[in-house]
Design brief:
This protein is of the alpha+beta class. It has a domain of 89 residues: PH-domain like (Roll). The protein contains two helices and nine strands. β1 and β2 form a beta hairpin. The longest helix has 21 residues.
């Protein structure tokens, strides 16, 4: 019985972890839609999230991106040891031009191999708005 309970709990936690990693872009998109983003300047941005859209879900990787004239011109993926590698594949948006950025997230990027991705400029996400503190009512009312 203990083995069954252990297996059931392990399955629950592993499936919930998989569900989170399988939909990493959706939570980022919701946050940016709700809170908004600061303008993304023309420079190298070292803390971006590259979201790859695959048939079985999304994969979100750390990286950096160079922005020039409001468009993404270079994308670098980060290895676990902190070293960056330039993504050598040519990429464009769906209109075959350089991908632009709206509200802190790039438009859909397509590589020559057909990979689809978006770049999320996580440092440009505006902070949560302050919430008012709810009053505690007396218990003798």
């Amino acid at each position: 019985m203990r083995n069954f309970l252990f297996i059931a709990i392990s399955f629950f936690f592993s499936s919930s972890l998989f569900a989170q990693s399988g939909d990493c872009y959706k939570s980022l998109e919701e946050a940016f839609l709700k809170r908004g983003a600061y303008t993304v300047a023309d420079e190298m941005h070292k803390n971006v999230i590259i979201c790859f859209f695959r048939a079985d879900g999304t994969e979100c990787l750390s990286g950096k991106a160079r922005v020039e004239n409001g468009s993404i011109v270079d994308i670098f993926l980060m290895y676990e040891d902190g070293v960056y590698e330039l993504m050598e594949k040519k990429f464009t948006n769906t209109k075959k031009t350089a991908p632009t950025i709206t509200n802190g997230i790039s438009e859909l990027i397509v590589t020559v191999d057909g990979e689809k991705m978006k770049v999320v400029f996580i440092d440009k996400l505006k902070p949560k708005q302050k919430a008012y503190k709810q009053a505690t009512l007396p218990t003798d009312l």
